[in-house]
Amino acid sequence: MRRFTLLTLAAAAVTAAAAPADSSYIREDGSRIVFSRTSPEMRRTLEKTRPTEPHAVSVPHFVVRSTNDKFILAIGGHINPIAGYDIGNDLYERDGARLAFVTSQIPVPAEHGRRSDYFINPLNASLDFQIVGLAGTPNAITAYVRMGTDNKDAAVRFKRAYVSYRDFTLGQVATLMQDADACQPPTIDPQGPCGIVGTTSYEISYRSPSYGGFRYAVGVDMPSYYSSAGFYMGRDYEQYHGEQVADVKNVEQMMPDIPVWVEYGRAAGRIRLSAMLRGFSYRDLVADCRRTVMGYGVMLSGNLYPCKPLILYGQVAYGRGFGNYLQDIAGMPLSFVPADDRPGRMKASPMMGWVAGATYNFSPRWQANVMFSQSRIWDVAEYCTAPDAAANYKYALYGAGNVFFNITSYLQVGLEYLWGRRVTWNEGGADDSRIQAQFKFTI
Description:
This protein is mainly β. The protein has helices spanning 2-18, 40-47, and strands at 33-37, 62-66, 71-79, 82-87, 116-121, 125-133, 141-148, 157-165, 168-174, 200-207, 214-221, 246-247, 258-266, 269-284, 289-307, 310-320, 336-338, 346-348, 350-361, 366-377, 395-406, 411-423, 429-442. It has a 16-stranded antiparallel beta barrel with strand order 3-6-7-8-9-10-11-13-14-15-16-19-20-21-22-23.
């Protein structure tokens, strides 16, 4: 039913776009609905409330609008088939990876006979809808929806769905904790560097206007947690070893995640300081009581523009218990684990991630990018014992270099080299390299 409704909506929107601007399309204010090329002014209006995170859909080339420009409907999307070859491991065949170069999924050790693989994958596509009402006024309101595949199968899923009014946003968005302009240069890889801060959240947020280069933002996120099951694996109290000392499932969470940031920017660059506070509730089975352990994350990020063709990117994040915000650690049951010295208590695990990168624009058509990244977690060795388990994770490294060429404003080709390394607590580490190319068409 959901898929039918989405297809019906898309068909109706396309039909409206193709229809002539006759008297049946005259609005109450006397304006008409027309189909036209996106003007520079309309592009600026749409960009104000469109997502800016990596791999976001760019502003469409055509829009449906009213002749007074108070109503704008934009339908965009892209199709990006990717072909490549893994060398040193078969990361593409891992269920949690496929096109995404997820360093935490690199098999350790590499299996004999499975140290290379090739692939052709067209399941990397998105379609989005953006509607702006009262465009060009202080009361402009935007609704945005993006659907797409996840490069693993042909199922279409919601990626973004939100409403923006004035400086408030409500819906399914990239978390406010993410610095979309600084987290990474462009990549063909849908995953991106292992150490970036970024996840999808159900969020209410406010972003201020610029005051002489200063801006700030504050939000409330619905939290996601990746905790151990509460079984004590420490060595301080042998009588509890292997026993469940905390119940992490049958307790309601009462506190949202609270991300905030402050930023200062000028023509030469910008710098942002971000922070996030969260609480994780559980039941202490030793003391038979409910408890809450606090987690947090802090991040320094920004860009430098030393000269017009060159852009530098940087991000460093550290915290405790915020693994669902770190690209490579998200999904691992390690953010909260039992405390060794206090059976029944949970603790927030320390972790960090960093990224450094650069973009050089040789011309409007040619662009080159390079980046390197690391993510790391500490103090969880006892909960990472299976040699090939995804949770057996100490740190990972990620490096990428690519070049893009814009054949037209609709069509972009690219070539990319990726390298990654995953290191475990007790089984050593393993590498994988990938060479891949894209043929991306944008509506």
